Amino acid sequence: MKEPVILCVDDEISILDSLKTELRDSLEGNFIIETAEDGNDALEIIAELISDGYDIPLIISDYIMPKMRGDELLIKVHLNYPKTLKIMLTGQASTEGVTNAVNQANLYRFIAKPWDKEDIALTIKEAVKSFYREEELETKRIQLIEANERLSKLDKAKNYFLGLLSHELNTPLIGIVGFANLMRQTSETEDQKECCDSIITSSNRLKRFAELALLITNLKTEKYNFQFQTENINEIIFNGISSLQNKAVSKDLEIIVGKIDEDIYLNYDPYLIQKVFEIILDNAIKFSPPKEKILIEFLIKDKQVSLNISDNGTGFSEDSLNSLFEFFSSDELYHHDEGCGLGLAVAKIIMDSHNGIIEATNKDSGGALVRLIFNI
Fold first, then answer.
1. pLDDT score for 116
2. For 242-285, how does the pLDDT look when each residue is reduced to its tens digit (9 = 90+)?
3. Which of 307, 282, 287 is nearest to 232 (CA)?
4. How far is CA 171 from the centre of its chain?
């Protein structure tokens, strides 16, 4: 990497010599110090240095010079090399000249002659630091843009993969389940029937995964056709309970619904919100010990409806609470339990699409509490 250059411009040789001395004394690191005796020479030197790949963090120019004033020079420098910082030195500068340099050349500092040695040394050091700080920020900004573009491409690829996976799984699964049901009907032994039941159960789990993957893809790529309706939220609750009642009964679980306000009407997509409720209730059933209770309660406050689903199961681990609504990050995936690590992430996307909120925590008495919050 080439050493950076600082350019000093003044029509008096003694001033240039003095500036060289100040620069060598005040700067830490290796810098090339170039000088020019008028503005035209300065522009030629700058163009040549930039062409050769040198950085020019700072230009220090006198104001009163033959052929071209300091403010005119700095304005021209700024037009072509806006990142280079500019300092103007003079004891005779007019208000107009300084104003021009400030407004049109983004003047870093105006220093009157004769200057204070400590003041100019500090000014030069801070100017150089500022140049490289801005350059570093620009580099990081570009890196961030590139990283975001890569993430965007990865996200699109992930969504495409989920959609493709869902499509490719659904077709053979329909055939597998159909053949397994036929085989079960003609099975002659209990072992054969159990094998068929295992095939059907596993296929249904895979089918649910495919359905969730497709739903995620459609929601993330904005291809889902929302069917918003103003309906009573009670329908969602009772339909969801009905669809999972057999699963709850198999574990001897009691689902208790608290007092419901019959006048709670919300604008939502019934299919999607029922899917959210079923995901939460299914998790509560899955992780509840047999013969326990699952409680569903409503709370209305500040123009919001909160639907709370709580259980007395194992609750969420501390690690999972931080990433519960991210894809493929839930406990159920890590523990290889029934589930696919997508359910709560899907619920979060759906609630976001309805301007709602989903929250999850552990109860003090043990068990999990998931809260769905809707705006009235």
1. 79
2. 999 999 999 999 999 887 666 778 889 988 999 999 999 998 99
3. 307
4. 35
Q: If you count them, how many residues does the chain have?
A: 376
How far are the Cα atoms of 76, 174, 184, 282, 317 from residue 200, in angstroms, in the given order? 77, 10, 10, 19, 31
Residue 358: the pLDDT is: 93
| Region 360-366 average pLDDT | 89
Is the CB of residue 342 less than 8 Å from the CB of residue 348? no
Q: Distance from first CA to last CA of the chain, Å, rounded?
A: 62
- Is residue 23 within 8 Å of 6, Cβ to Cβ? yes
- Residue 321's closest CA among 287, 362, 353? 362
Please check the confidence at residue 304 and state whether its pLDDT lies above 70: yes
Concatenate the DSSP letters of all residues of 308-344 into one string.
EEE-SS----HHHHTSTTSTT-SHHHHTT-SS-S-HH
Q: What is the pLDDT of residue 140?
A: 80
Residue 335 has pLDDT above 60, yes or no: no
- Do residues 57 and 132 touch, judged by C-beta distance below 8 A? yes
Higher pLDDT, 376 or 189: 189
Helix/strand/coil percent split, the chain, to 5 = 55, 20, 30
| pLDDT for res 184 | 85
Tokens at 80, concatenated? 């072509």
φ/ψ of 311, rounded to 5, equals -135, 175
CA distances from 164 to 28, 156, 205, 223, 275 (A): 58, 12, 18, 14, 22
For residue 65, the one-letter residue type is M
Cα gap 362→315, rounded to integer Å: 6
Place of tokens 């100017």: 127
Distance from chain centroid for Cα 336: 29
Asked whether 371 and 307 are in contact (CB, 8 A), the reply is: yes
- Answer for the pair 57, 85: CB distance below 8 angstroms, yes or no: yes
CA 277 from chain centre, in angstroms, equals 27
